[in-house]
Automatic annotation (TrEMBL):
Belongs to the glycosyl hydrolase 65 family. It holds the Pfam family Glyco_hydro_65N. The active site is at E489 (proton donor). The keyword Oxidoreductase does not apply. Substrate binds at W362, D363, K593, Q594. It comes from the Bacteria. This is Alpha,alpha-trehalose phosphorylase. Residues 328-680 form the Glycoside hydrolase family 65 central catalytic domain. The keyword Transferase applies. Coiled coil: none annotated. Residues 16-271 form the Glycoside hydrolase family 65 N-terminal domain.
Length: 811
């Protein structure tokens, strides 16, 4: 586990003050650098020791068989696994013949700092070799946001009170061993030597290039490096390349006070179509661009890019510096996952590790894209264009399943369904409505008419068509969607999942509306008036399951009559339950992996009354174990909405610290990008009270006791709205428009209008005390953000329910 105070609290940095080899895999994920196209895990420069060595290119995968003991119709035949491509991070150092290895000699100091504004990972160490020579090494690494095929490392070495002979070997290595097999279903399949060498060369200027391809998926990748050496004394530099590795060697002798500076520029490119010469040229061109900027230029571009991101996206919190740091860390990684993905998926782990085989899920549309919509909308358009690129595959999948429209894959890299477990894969049809909702939100927030015409209509229409054939009207006319799995994966293949039905309802209406607004596009897709009317009918007749006796929504048909899970008899070490209990048992009991009705109450909050929200929240809190990292942010939002502000603060903390504290004990496999995005959702949706159900944004801001001020910004149709909330009032101000640019919005239900010239300040209405906070299953309460003495109304268990005093198992 990452130690409680593993990373000191600082507003703009994540700093590791000493190297802990027991959590190397975790720190490699935390310190990963990516731009959505290239991902470099935070491996040590010298390559060893490592937890998981990883270098990724978005969508560069290998196929692997999906074997079934008992296969069935429509089961996917092959899976996809992200490939650990040629490692260009490697820089080995020999000090008087002794390789720098932190396990040998003496590591006198070691610090790594992820700088969230500079976009760099800096490492500084002082090492005494077994022979007694002492060196100081500073390496600074970046993956460029502005040049998406480029990464770079600056490596500086100097002797400390001695003279030394130095050899620096900077490498490209393909087919390196990178991870050990595991039985946890959430980790990646291990691919042995997936890359076949196709070309290797060294040019006169010392550029080395390796081109490889995958055996089955037939993708081709090139990696190239070139170096600049800066040293006051004589150096000897040579470069060589072989099938699976290339190496530039620098030799020199340094006296005390002298220094060797090596700048390594790296470029990557891949394609499923282009030839070896074309890839070679593509990578060569990227390297030329990097050289043209030079190291200082790359640093300056990186800084500018991030300055403008933070200007739009930063969230400031007074009163909880730990969460402040974690939220910025989360936003930085969300940006790294999506910034330059450019019509490729944003996967569950971003490009920070091999977990979940590098697949993208609904995490993208329901957790990552809502954040990017309001902070970096261009990345959202790209991510949804990727979905459009895979629409034909989704149509084919629907056809194979006997359905109309498009059935998007539950997990995938290229658009093919890769889930071999259909009850929590294919049956999770809600992903179609999730995509539709992301499309709707993006169009509404940006007013991007071109996107609506060219991208949105197709996605909305084809997802709506699926619902029309997947669901049916019963003899009373009610519309049901039977046999599907909602977000809670501990309940599968049930009728009328509330979340699915409400999201499908919105999807059907959005399709009908966009077809009406774009008749030409609708005609091209063959949409008739009758079809649009059928979507509206289905939406109007959507059956929503309520247990009248308990007065709560039933997650799915009959869910509330299932046997209760015995939480008191479930030991802490049996979480996550999916690794300790058979699915058949989880499926037939009231135990919930992650927010489901509660998630519906967030994104379809317009379909519930305040009273229903309060009752549902209390009911589902007692049964939700949060075995998915996607849950806590949603629980934060609903805890805040139902008035349990301190509980909301606790859940915010859990989402934000998911990886900095390794709360689910699997950060080593890659970061939980949806949870990190969820920290923003918890703050802006929870304490800012943002809802975007209609044309006008709604805010119901209210802060927990420990947070005295919250400030965030949203991009809205070319304008920038800044919201500052204190305990007493909220101020809305607008910029980036002319003086008379105006934005209507709702503040706690009251209509106000903000213009660029006139900010509006409105009071936060007094809080109506909601009563005791709901309890969680035994031992599953989130860790508290504030000492109990300061939080009088938190986590008092309701009568007859188990105490919620425990902390989560993984803490
Ligand atoms: C969750 C899914 C999620 C997946 C990838 C699972 O544990 O239950 O909702 O899509 O992880 O993050």
């Amino acid at each position: 586990m990452i130690r409680e105070h593993g990373f000191p609290v600082e507003p703009w940095h994540v700093r590791e003050e000493e190297l802990d080899l027991d959590v190397l895999a975790q720190s490699e994920s935390v310190f990963a650098l990516a731009n959505g196209h290239i991902g470099l895990r935070g491996n040590l420069d010298e390559g060893e020791p490592y937890g998981i060595s990883g270098t990724y290119l978005n969508s560069f995968y290998e196929l692997r068989p999906l074997p079934y003991a008992e296969a069935g119709y429509g089961y996917p035949e092959s899976g996809q696994t992200i490939v650990n491509v040629t490692n260009g991070k490697l820089i080995r150092l020999l000090v008087d013949d002794e390789p720098l290895d932190v396990r040998h000699g003496e590591l006198l100091s070691h610090e790594r700092v992820l700088d969230l504004r500079a976009g760099t990972l800096r490492r500084e160490l002082v090492w005494r070799s077994p022979g007694g020579s002492v060196v100081k090494v500073i390496s600074t690494r970046l993956v460029s946001f502005t040049q998406r095929s480029v990464a770079a490392v600056r490596y500086e070495v100097e002797p400390v009170n001695c003279s030394i002979r130095l050899i620096v070997q900077s490498e490209l290595v393909a087919n390196e061993a990178s991870a050990t097999p595991s039985t946890d279903p959430r980790v990646a399949a291990v691919l042995e030597s997936p890359l076949v060498a196709e070309e290797q060369l060294v040019t006169d200027d010392g550029t080395a290039l390796l081109v490889h391809s995958t055996r089955t998926s037939k993708l081709r990748a090139g990696a190239a490096m070139v170096h600049e050496v800066d040293c006051a004394v004589r150096t000897d530099v040579s470069t060589e390349a072989y099938e699976d590795w290339a190496r530039t060697t620098v030799a020199c002798e340094l006296a005390d006070g002298e220094r060797l500076t090596l700048t390594k520029l790296l470029a990557y490119g891949w394609s499923s179509r282009r030839s070896v010469p074309a890839i070679r040229d593509q990578v060569g061109a990227a390297l030329a661009g990097a050289r043209f900027s030079g190291w200082e230029g790359l640093l300056a571009e990186q800084r500018d890019y991030l300055d403008s991101f933070w200007d739009a996206a930063d969230v400031r919190i007074d009163g909880d510096p730990e969460v402040q740091q974690a939220v910025r860390f989360g936003l930085f990684h969300v940006l790294q996952a999506g910034a330059r993905a450019e019509q490729r998926p944003i996967s569950a782990k971003g490009l920070t590790g091999p977990g979940y085989d590098g697949h993208a899920f609904w995490d993208t549309e329901m957790f990552v894209l809502p954040v990017l919509t309001y902070t970096h909308p261009a990345a959202v358009a790209d991510a949804l264009r990727w979905r459009l690129d895979t629409l034909e595959l989704a149509r084919q999948r629907a056809q194979q399943l006997g359905l109309a429209g498009a059935a998007f894959p539950w997990r995938t890299i290229s658009g093919h369904e890769c889930s071999g477990y259909w009850p929590a894969g294919t049956a999770s049809f809600h992903i179609g409505a999730d995509i539709a909702d992301a499309v709707r939100r993006y169009v509404q927030a940006t007013g991007d008419a071109g996107f609506e015409r060219d991208i949105a209509v197709d996605l909305l229409v084809e997802t709506a068509r699926l619902w029309r054939t997947l669901g049916h009207h019963d003899r009373h006319g009610r519309f049901h969607i039977d046999g599907v799995t909602g977000p809670d994966e501990y309940t599968a293949v049930r009728d009328d999942n509330v979340y699915t039905n409400l999201m499908a309802q919105r999807n059907l209406l959005a399709a009908a509306e966009s077809a009406a607004r774009h008749p030409d596009q609708a005609r091209r897709l063959g949409v008739t008036d009758e079809e649009s009317a059928a979507w509206r009918d289905a939406a109007a007749a959507m059956h929503i399951q309520i247990d009248d006796e308990l007065g709560v929504h039933s997650q799915a048909e009959e869910f509330t009559r299932l046997q209760e899970w015995n939480f008191a008899a479930t030991p802490a070490e049996h979480y996550p339950l999916l690794l300790h209990y058979p699915y058949f048992d989880l499926y037939r009991k009231q135990v919930i992996k992650q927010a489901d009705v509660v998630l519906a109450m967030h994104w379809r909050g317009d379909a519930f009354t305040a009273e229903q929200k309060a009752r549902n929240f209390a009911y589902y809190e007692q049964r939700t174990v949060r075995d998915s990292s996607l849950s806590s942010c949603t629980q934060a939002v609903l805890a805040a909405e139902t008035g349990h502000l301190e509980l909301a603060h606790d859940y915010l903390g859990e989402a934000a610290l998911m990886d900095l504290r390794d709360i689910h004990a699997n950060t080593g496999e890659g970061l939980h990008i949806a949870a990190l995005a969820g920290a923003w959702i918890a703050l802006v949706g929870g304490f800012g009270g943002l809802r975007d159900h209609g044309d006008v944004l709604e805010f119901s801001p209210r802060l927990p006791e420990r947070i005295s001020r919250l400030e965030f910004s949203l991009m809205w149709r070319g304008l920038r709205l800044r919201v500052v909330v204190t305990q007493a009032e909220a101020t809305y101000s607008l910029r980036d428009g002319s003086d008379d640019a105006r934005m209507p919005l709702l503040h706690h239900g009251a209509a106000i209008e903000v213009t660029c010239a006139h900010p509006v300040t409105a009071p936060v209405p007094p809080r109506i005390h909601p009563g005791p906070a709901p309890s969680q299953p035994h031992g599953r309460a989130p860790a508290r953000r504030a000492p109990a003495a300061q939080v009088p109304h938190q986590n008092h268990p309701a009568a007859g329910t188990p105490t919620a005093a425990g902390r989560t198992a993984a803490e």
